[in-house]
Amino acid sequence: MSAENYHFAPSEAFARQAIAQASLYAEAKADRLGFWAKQARELYWHKPFTQTLDFSNAPFAKWFADGKLNISYNCLDRHVEAGNGDRTAIFFEGEPGDSKQLTYAELTREVKKAANALTALGIKAGDRVAIYMPMIPEAVIAMQAVARVGAVHSVIFGGFSAESLSSRIEDAEAKLVITADGGYRKGKASALKPAVDEALSAGKCASVKNVLVVRRTNQDVDWVEGRDVEWREAVGNASEEHEAQAFDAEHPLFILYTSGTTGKPKGILHTSGGYLTQAAYTHKNVFDLHAEKDIYWCTADVGWITGHSYVVYGPLANGASQVIYEGTPDIPDWGRWWSIIEKYKVSIFYTAPTAIRTFMKLGSEIPDKYNLKSIRVLGSVGEPINPEAWMWYRAHIGGGQAPIVDTWWQTETGAIMVSPLPGVTTLKPGSAQVPLPGVSAAVLDDEGHELGRGDPGLLVLTEPWPAMLRGIWGDPDRFKETYWSKFEGKYFAGDGAKWDEEGDLWLLGRVDDVMNVSGHRLSTAEIESALVSHPFVAEAAVVGAKDETTGQAIVAFVILRQNQIEAAGNDADVSKILREHVAKEIGPIAKPRTIIVVAELPKTRSGKIMRRLLRDVAEDRPIGDVTTLADTSVMDIISGKIAGGAND
């Protein structure tokens, strides 16, 4: 049975409260700009705006441009002033087992002190600050403090190398780096400051004047007198009084670097008023947040856009109580996430399909040991979730009742663009379903003609939205060329998609992950989903390899479930069985030419599969840069396996 034929209607409890959310679609359709102005007015504006959108200099947009606000004030002070200072803002779980809670009053006080410390170090509005930190409360405090003083943060994921760090610092011309001696990961202290020292060595990154260092692990680190400053001294001794100043709605808030097709990272620029409007609106409505009673947990690191929008800004703007954690889900054991949910009675849980599939592979026995009855909404982010993982997630984490919001968005969009609304949408496993109220999308062919239902094509956004990127830092021409040149007046997302017969949207992966086999456009995500639906397969990654006959051929890398193989008999022809299974699920044209059995797939520290490296293997090219992998030895093992002829 096709996944498109599975439907899950809202529960009675959700359906009863869905009327207000359902009306959002009608409001947005009747007056899109008026709808966004109404959402923006949920924030506090020091100077109210009178103009909603100025797109006269397209594709450079201005939202609420004549208004003024302060991001940090909206995330912190206003909740304290409203009498919610005693509400917990952050429940922190460190990997060694330490925990900490910060109320909104306490978090506001710490951010004010950090803002004063930044000012004392010479940071002023418009200056860039690089943040390279573990997932600890000080990371949130640092980001909020930078925003509070009107500076611009560039958060760089703590797993990146010194070279990657250096290139990002130099591109943004950062004046300050905020880091830590290290953090805890995989059961041990992992150093961070040595990478900063290396990045700043030999005269590189001359714009940096100071390095502000949090002592997290207390490991020995080198110290540069006159440059390096202790967080606990600079922030600990700072005044608790700090009045938030208002900045223009289009004042830059952050730069976040993302991979580019040229190999040079793109500094995606987001500004203030529009970004916070949509981050707060989507967080509240997509997750059906009730701030006075929900406990929310997004497992993302602040080094990625999900951590920006759905840890640091959206939840705090909405006055939510949330969990943040340091480390990985397998330390001290694979029950860690579920024990945290049980401990804090987490009611909204947002994570990545890669993690869900990993837990699915390990078996339901682990989460079944814990009381997860507090969960009422589940979320998925980062890539399309295959229907089998969706079903497992709902059954074993959501108790067979919790709706799953399968969210599509990007670093560039700043906030969720396509997602079900819990209680409103009849859910369909594997489909992101419908654009949110206020968002306009279409699926086009290569010539820009709008496609009907059932036809795969290219996803575009047809109207500007508040949280949209405002450019690529220092490179306006690249911004126009990358996102706006393919289809005039429309944002090209770089993703393949199709509307199904019922009008729901299915994401088909990046365009470079959509293969053209004998003139047929085939999605890697669709073939991966078919492979994982077979009981033999725990996880799969599919890439296209050059083929003289068909243009591209399909190569699949699969991790097998050994217990299922043994049950079927160890002499089973796995390759033949899986190829026929894909042919049955999708069609003979989708049969992989080659199936390669591997023990692990190459993944970044955030859990994304590096298909670029698998394409190198499939096309017998030298393996490219592996520095962003969580385990660089994985590619050596895969390459050795191929060299030894161990493939089907």
Question: What this model shows, in words?
Answer:
With 648 residues, the protein is an alpha/beta fold. The protein has a domain at 518-643: ANL, C-terminal domain (GMP Synthetase, Chain A, domain 3), CATH 3.30.300. Helices cover 31% and strands 22% of the residues. Strands 12-11-8-6-7-14-15-23 form an eight-stranded mixed β-sheet, sandwiched between helices. Helix 2 (19-30) crosses helix 3 (32-40), helix 4 runs parallel beside helix 11 (305-317) and helix 7 (162-172) crosses helix 8. Residues 526-608 form the AMP-binding enzyme C-terminal domain. Its EC number is 6.2.1.1. Keywords: ATP-binding, Ligase, Nucleotide-binding.
List the main descriptive attributes of the protein structure presented here.
GMP Synthetase, Chain A, domain 3; globular; 7-stranded mixed beta sheet; 22% strand; 20 helices
Number of strands: 30
Shape: globular
Strand order of the largest sheet: 12-11-8-6-7-14-15-23
CATH class of the domain at 518-643: Alpha Beta
So, CATH architecture of the domain at 518-643? Answer: 2-Layer Sandwich
Full CATH superfamily name of the domain at 518-643 = ANL, C-terminal domain
The proportion of residues in beta strands is 15-25%
Helical run tally: 20
Mean pLDDT: 90
Radius of gyration: 24 Å
Largest sheet: 8 strands, mixed
Structural class: alpha/beta
Low-pLDDT residue intervals, each spanning 5 or more residues: none
CATH topology of the domain at 518-643: GMP Synthetase, Chain A, domain 3
Helical residue percent? 25-40%
In whole angstroms, how far apart are the ends? Answer: 28 Å
